[in-house]
Amino acid sequence: MNYFDVIQLTLYIVALVVLTPITGKFMANVFENKPFKGKKAFLWAEKSIYKICDIDPEKQMDWKKYTFALLFFNLTGFLVVFLLQLFQQHLGLNPQHQKNVEGTLAFNTAVSFMTNTNWQSYSGENTMSYLTQMLGLAVQNFVSAATGITVILALIRGLRNRTSENLGNFFADLTRSVVYVLLPLSIVFAVFLVSQGVVQNFSHYSEVTTLEGAKQILPQGPAASQIAIKQLGTNGGGFFGANSAHPFENPTPLCNFLEMLAILLLPAGLTFTYGKMVGSVRQGWILFTTMLILFLVGQAITTYSEFSFAGHIMEGKETRFGILNSVLWENATTAASNGSVNAMHSSLSPLSGMVALFNMMLGEIIFGGVGAGLYGMLVFVILTVFIAGLMVGRTPEYLGKKIESFEMKMAIIGVVLPSFVILTFTAIAVLIPAGLNSIANKGPHGFSEILYAFTSAAGNNGSAFAGLSTNTPFYNIMIGIGMLIGRFGIILPVLAIAGSLSRKKIVPVSAGTFQTDNMTFVFLLISIILIVGALTFFPALSLGPIIEHILMLSGKTF
């Protein structure tokens, strides 16, 4: 590690901290429907959507109607993407004449992009037509990210409401998230990417002759538009199979830096948005600080491991970017449920692979997906407030709302369901031939490949260890089910919590109120997060990356 690596890592953290209040304030104005610069330029689009879709943005929904609208919209998106894949051979914008996608793979991909996971059991340039990429996958990149934002908005309103059933309007929240936040940022970012060399066209693939005289096919396509939203929306699905290690997706060091920054930009900014909307910016900074501390600890472990134990091994890493950029991207993409990669995670040192796994196992709350990371973190806040209240003999309260049995039950469900997917589905896969036949390595690394796949599915991350062949009926179906549980197994309890809190009175602050806006609470929150994670997943990690690390130190491999 040299001085340039230190400077770049420092610039990355500083840029994230500086941009958080800027993007957070902007999004708060958008979601509060307040004036902001640039609103008039896109106001026509918002009004047109309301008119065409017959939406009354002022019509309020309780948590059950909000939930039904969310589920109906997502089901519709799933069906559209599923059918596009099944019939893409007969549709337009298919210059490479890509065939129709096999049924279980189409199911897996449709679920993947609908749940903001973008797990890809296929290579994009060899499987999907331009029409499927744009009308199906890219559109879902926008609306799946916006869905995460709508859930955190509903929870915010539940926390600040006073005995009200109303959580806002799902369709209005979704529309504003896309029209004013995701779409403008993606347009600007896509233009920048094109300027750096990311392809954006509808051309046939090009055949070129290499310096050695061999023939090589260079894939083309409308990549920049999808890469922009895959990063900003914490989607992560690559236009090409090599994802952001491909020079047509990530051609320059500047492009690499800004793509990494885009991964955390909106999830970090939403913490400030949260503080503004609940009436306490300090509360938002407390959540941001918690996330940043966990992120920095993970970054320290991966950096130390790759530069020390791994002996500067470049296997699986892009020589254009080097080791630091590989592990910084790895930490950011697994902390933010983005899933894009600029290096192959299967080639990481065991400790680095463990950090990637643990980031996802914690529920993708270290910044997490757009909106999803924040409401996941607030589930742990509820657990922390309740446990801390019992420890000191105070009534569990958060922002003036009493935390009672219903909220605790829903919070526990939100924590347990993804954990159930990770551990149970992994156990099934290692016990049957259909699961074991896909691994590329024996021993603990082979176990880690399977564990990583289901962890990525449950966390709606989408990255993979890359050594596991998952385009099989068993993995397509099991990972698809895991993604559904990982997404809606948290969204539904969170919306139920939002509805319950919204109906409660706000209790005035008193001498007995447990403070949640200081560093003591940050320490307690991190402790609860790590204890829950350690108790749940330490045995599984011991069978995979931990034992692999011990064997590596003794010079043994499988």
Q: Would you summarize the structure shown here?
A:
The chain is mainly alpha-helical and 558 residues long.
Task: Break the fold down into its secondary structure elements and pairings.
Layout: H1 3-31, H2 39-52, H3 63-86, H4 103-114, H5 124-127, H6 130-160, H7 170-196, E1 206-209, E2 215-218, H8 223-232, H9 253-278, H10 281-309, H11 322-335, H12 350-361, H13 372-392, E3 397-398, E4 401-402, H14 405-429, H15 433-436, H16 443-458, H17 473-502, H18 519-553
Antiparallel strand pairs: 1-2, 3-4
Helix pairs in contact: 1-9, 2-7, 3-4, 3-6, 3-17, 4-17, 6-7, 6-8, 6-17, 7-8, 9-10, 9-11, 10-11, 10-12, 10-18, 11-12, 12-16, 12-18, 13-14, 13-18, 14-16, 14-17, 16-17, 16-18
Describe the structure using short key phrases:
two-stranded antiparallel sheet, mainly alpha, 65% helix, 18 helices, two-stranded antiparallel ribbon, 2 domains, 558 residues
What does this structure look like?
With 558 residues, the chain is mostly helical. The mean pLDDT is 93. The chain folds into 2 domains: 22-264, no CATH class; 372-553, no CATH class. The two termini are 29 Å apart. The chain has helices spanning 3-31, 39-52, 63-86, 103-114, 124-127, 130-160, 170-196, 223-232, 253-278, 281-309, 322-335, 350-361, 372-392, 405-429, 433-436, 443-458, 473-502, 519-553; strands spanning 206-209, 215-218, 397-398, 401-402. The protein is built from 18 helices and 4 strands. Helix 3 (63-86) runs antiparallel to helix 4 (103-114). The chain has a two-stranded antiparallel sheet.
